[in-house]
Amino acid sequence: MKIIRTSNMPKANGHYSQCIEHNGLLYLSGQLPINPVTREIPVTIEEQTDLALQNVEEILHAAGSGKSQILQVRVYISNIELWDKVNQRYGIFFGEHKPVRSIIPTRELHFGCLIEVEATAVIGA
């Protein structure tokens, strides 16, 4: 088991790793839509979706993989009413690649975010 770190992402705020590689698989912790440089959170769900997915992609690149290598995605949203907008931005991000996915409505997410995204991927871009 190997912990993957990247200086392009903020350090974990809690007792967890951003990404662990094990037997050729990458397990990514949930990524919030927080800009890694400014620590700002966009306002709209579309902007938050784009940024959360970009944060996932940044970690994958640091681990030697990419978004086309994602097997499974779990998307947590603060309100089921956001599903259509999230699905639309998600589709733009992934294009023809369609990893298995769950969208799970929750209540409040940390820092008032509207979305959190976690993923499992294989190594290799």
Q: What is this structure, in a nutshell?
A:
The chain is an alpha+beta fold and 125 residues long.
Helix content bin:
10-25%
The biggest beta sheet, please?
6 strands, mixed
* Side-by-side strand order of the widest sheet: 1-2-3-6-4-5
What percent strand?
A: 25-35%
Helical segment tally?
A: 2
- The CATH architecture designation is 2-Layer Sandwich
User: What gross morphology would you assign?
Assistant: globular
> What is the CATH C level class, in words?
Alpha Beta
| Straight-line N-to-C gap | 20 Å
Mean pLDDT: 93
- Count of β-strands: 6
CATH topology: 60s Ribosomal Protein L30, Chain: A
Salient structural properties:
125 residues, alpha+beta, 60s Ribosomal Protein L30, Chain: A, 6 strands
Q: What this model shows, in words?
A:
By secondary structure, the chain is α+β, with helices and mostly antiparallel strands. The chain has one domain (2-122): 60s Ribosomal Protein L30, Chain: A (2-Layer Sandwich), CATH 3.30.1330. 24% of the residues lie in helices and 29% in strands. The protein has helices at 45-62, 83-94; strands spanning 2-4, 19-22, 25-31, 70-77, 100-105, 115-122. Helix 2 links the parallel strand 4 (70-77) and strand 5. Helix 1 packs parallel to helix 2. The two termini are 20 Å apart.
